[in-house]
Structure formats: structure tokens, C-alpha cells
Amino acid sequence: MKLYDIFLNNNKIGTTELEKGDAPMGSVFGKITFINISSGYDFFKTHCVTNGIELVTDYPEDRLILGRCSISIL
To answer: Residue 63, SS3?
Structure first.
């Protein structure tokens, strides 16, 4: 399977195989292997809060957030 690099603000933060998808929704999903990031939840929450990106939902007990931020996957 092909491995995709994930970048945020021109910095490579991880990789994924994008192993799942929903063609009718036009979206793909995959487990992220982070580079030098111990918690994806903490990393993305900090990124959103620091950059004034609205958090639509935040479930700290489940370590799940939904925000209006995006990641470019190349």
C-alpha cells in the first residue's frame, strides 16, 4: 500500500496509508503515524486553540476533537 506524508504548516508531522475511504462523501481516512508527536489529540487541540480555530466538539475523556482545521495530505 502507498504511504502518504502529512504536513502542517509545511512541516512533516507524520504518515498514513489512507486505508479507509467513503467514495460518496469524497473522503479518505487512515491511522496516522506521528513523527515526534506523543499525542495527536494534544497536538491538534493546541494547534487549533493557538491559531484561533474553532473547536466544534471536544471530548477530552475520549481524546477526540472536531474542529474547523484541516491537514494537507500529499
So the answer is: coil
Give the largest Cα separation in the chain, rounded: 36
Tell me the per-residue pLDDT of 56-71, one tens digit each, with 9 for 90 and over: 889 999 988 887 755 5
Looking at the chain, the number of H-run helices and the number of E-run strands are: 1, 8
Residue 49 parent element (H or E): helix 40-50
Model's pTM, two decimal places? 0.75
Grid cell at residue 70? 484541516
> What's 2's DSSP letter?
-
Phi, psi of 55 (to 5 degrees): -95, 115
Gyration radius of the chain over CA positions:
13
Domain boundaries, the chain: 4-73
